[in-house]
Amino acid sequence: MLTPETLARLAIVGWSDAINLPDDAADYLPARVIIQHRNGYVVHDGENEFTVQPAPRFLKRSLDPTERPAVGDFVLLKPGKPPLIEVLLPRHATLSRAAAGERYQRQLIATNVDSVLVLMGLDGDFNPRRLERYLALIQASGAQCVVVLTKADSHEDIDAVMTDVAEVLPPDIIVHPVNAKDAQSVAVLHRYLGPGRTAVVVGSSGVGKSTLTNTLLGVQRMATNSVRQNDSRGRHTTTFRALIALPQGGCLIDTPGMRELKLTGEEDLQAGQFADIDSLAMQCRFGDCAHQSEPGCAVRAALQSGELDEERFASYQKLRDELQTQASNLEAQLKRKSEAKTPNKALGKRPSEKYSGR
């Protein structure tokens, strides 16, 4: 059981009463992972930040990467020089994506997050199709999605952009146009960053993630850079994920720009921003309608009438096909792991027993 003093200290890095501790927690030091490097981790115990190493079992090559500590995790440390991450406490929300490459592997972006701030710049970065992909990943995480349109001060028609965004987003998603350099403008985000709460900032390079972090901090802590004039792309100023405690009492995780957003295979498109398409499909004459040339297809009828946008439906089909592929990859990976854990009974037998039937 942690003392009131320890709990008050840990609250600075987002600790909440909902975190469950093991019975032997008194033998360890609680902390939160704030930076992950190739050769170790940096954690914060509410007073100090310091470097630690993972326990040997976290270094096994056969271990699923999602079972290793990640930025945002609450951990228990075994004292030593250096201290070791001995216990990984249960996560309440995890934002992840499938890693780039042909081999299926899930990559953690951040753990124990309450809100995901999706930043899109109004200087040429805004992309409804990419926003749909972000939404699919976030809805599978269990965290709240908040869309933040940066560089709103440089756009002439915010109302028109808000109309475009409304066509992509479900009605429960909140959108905030802001000037990331203006403390008064970004004050609308404070509600997601109260004591005990953690938000992660995601978006392409150059949208203003580090600028927003600096403004919320009130100091120039994160390095920033300008974008290319020809395509509004950034130069990857942020190169690693970092959790930062904010003056408001909450925590913010800044992340590098993400060029690729692959689905993990656990998303549910029908439960999110494409629920209306699923509702239309339920009205088709045939239950297995492919929405091509079948008679009585409600989806095709909606496309022809203009009720359903062609580009949006094409995006849905692309994400649906990718989701099916990734779900198959995930299932195959889980099957391989299950088979690897099943011991070969013959290995435990004596030679005379193994070959007695010959």
UniProtKB/TrEMBL annotation:
Descriptive protein name: Small ribosomal subunit biogenesis GTPase RsgA
Keyword Cytoplasm among UniProt keywords: yes
Residues annotated for Zn(2+) binding in this entry: 284, 289, 291, 297
One biological process term in Gene Ontology: ribosomal small subunit biogenesis
Family that this chain belongs to: Belongs to the TRAFAC class YlqF/YawG GTPase family. RsgA subfamily.
Domain of life: Bacteria
Localization per record: Cytoplasm
